[in-house]
Amino acid sequence: MQANDLLQLAEQFGSPLYVYDAEKIQSQYNRLTKAFSKVPNLRINYAMKALSNVAILQLLRDMGSGLDTVSIQEVLLGLHAGYSPEKIFYTPNGVSLEEIEEVHALGVQINIDNLSILEQFGAKHPHVPVCIRINPHVMAGGNANISVGHIDSKFGISVHQLPHLVRIVENTNMNIVGIHMHTGSDILDIEVFLYAAEILFDAAKNFKNLEFLDFGSGFKVPYKKDDIATDIDELGKKLSKRFNAFCTEYGKDLTLIFEPGKFLVSEAGFFLAKVNVVKQTTSTVFAGIDSGFNHLIRPMLYGSSHFIENISNPKGKERFYSVVGYICETDTFATNRRIAEIKEGDILSFRNAGAYCFSMSSNYNSRYKPAEVLWMNGQGYLIRAHEKFEDLLQNQIPLPVDVAATV
After folding, report:
1. What pairs with residue 26 in β-bridges?
2. Alpha carbon distance 1, 19 (integer Å)
């Protein structure tokens, strides 16, 4: 997308505003499938927690994607978006057996990540196809909050508990059709990923009726110029060769599954915010925008860096700014960042705003959530309206008049 397109959308739909480029999502999907084109059976399940707008789900559905979900609500959204149950994969963590039963009743593939629930569910539903999430105890990912395969992680069944796991499966006569792992997000070292894959291959040998192996995702995308990213082509070449060899050893062509979220939508997203005030202090020039961590929490939560561009003055002389929000707590998006000269009323564009941005937004400070727009075939389509005051009140219930009068 061009800066002029974004400016036009900010003028048309207001700010703050999320914009998603459909062409970029499509190109990322095609890039991943091409990298693993030598695998006979490949399936991509979009990790919808990254961005769960129904229009985005429909876009990926039409490209052939399945869904990776982590809650009953995401499952219901997927069904609402037109996915058939067999195209939806459910990988929860720490949920109740009751929720898993609800999902099972919908016909969705279940992935279980702890021994207790595995035994309870297996005893009750021995013939239901189940996938098992293994924790390979491999540290991968960037920030500690997004590394989920290490030994202290709450996710998955420890690979060291494999004998116990196998005993449960044998005692309940469960139907195990898949093995799954996810090491974490922002994977840089392909060799670490391949090492974890070998652990999954070894675990898979304990189960004779597998239909698929799910390797999660966590592929890193670039956040700035010359940033390091996962080499998808190299990973595709190496893992495809090893996966096909394992299928030969196993005696059956299995399906290779990935669950990309950030990889598909991060670079497609732009977050547009208007500069309310330029404030010079004794040591800093602040650019205060009409947003805050209520709309984009990743820099505060993960220390993530989003490239910020002044699209109102892209060729202006660069100065140093600290870009901050309007929340009544510290919400700093960038500190002493070189940005083209900013004036009040300018529109700033935050890159890589497609993943875990709107989906983690809130109404903190009773602020409204922004609108979302999908840029497709040279046109902007409103896919979520900007909230209004009535939306804040929608589920609130005031005290009855007679009770309030006694306070």
Report:
1. none
2. 10
In this predicted structure, what is the pLDDT of residue 152? Answer: 63
**Of the candidates 4, 80, 10, 25, which has an alpha carbon nearest to the alpha carbon of residue 376?**
25
CATH number of 269-388: 2.40.37.10
Helix or strand or coil: residue 359? helix
> From CA 107, how far away is CA 246, in angstroms rounded?
29
Q: How many CA atoms lie within 13 A of 249 on its CB side?
A: 10
User: What are the beta bridge partners of residue 289?
Assistant: 275
Question: Which residues are annotated binding-site positions for substrate?
Answer: 298, 302, 329, 356
What token pair was written down for 360? Answer: 């983690």
Between CA 340 and CA 321 the distance in angstroms is: 9
Name which CATH class applies to 23-262. alpha beta
Rounded-to-integer distance, Cα 71 and Cα 134, Å: 19
- Please state, in angstroms and rounded to a whole number, the distance separating the CA atoms of residues 211 and 177: 5
| Structural domain spans, the chain | 23-262, 269-388
- Walking along the chain (407 residues) 10 residues at a time, the average pLDDT comes out as 95 97 98 97 97 98 97 98 98 93 96 94 94 84 45 80 94 95 75 90 95 92 86 95 97 96 97 98 96 94 92 96 94 96 98 96 97 97 97 93 71
Q: What is the pLDDT of residue 1?
A: 85
- Helix, strand, coil shares, percent, the chain, to 5: 35, 25, 40
Angstrom distance (rounded) from CA 158 to CA 150: 9
Annotated binding site: 218, 298, 302, 329, 356
- Annotated binding-site members for pyridoxal 5'-phosphate: 218, 356
Hey, do 23-262 and 269-388 end up sharing a CATH topology, with the first three levels equal? Answer: no
CA-to-CA dists, residue 163 to 183, 207, 380, angstroms: 21, 12, 54
Distance CA 352, CA 298 (A): 11
Catalytic residues: 328
**pTM (2 decimals)?**
0.93
Which of these, 352, 343, 306, 255, lies nearest to 42 by C-alpha position? 255
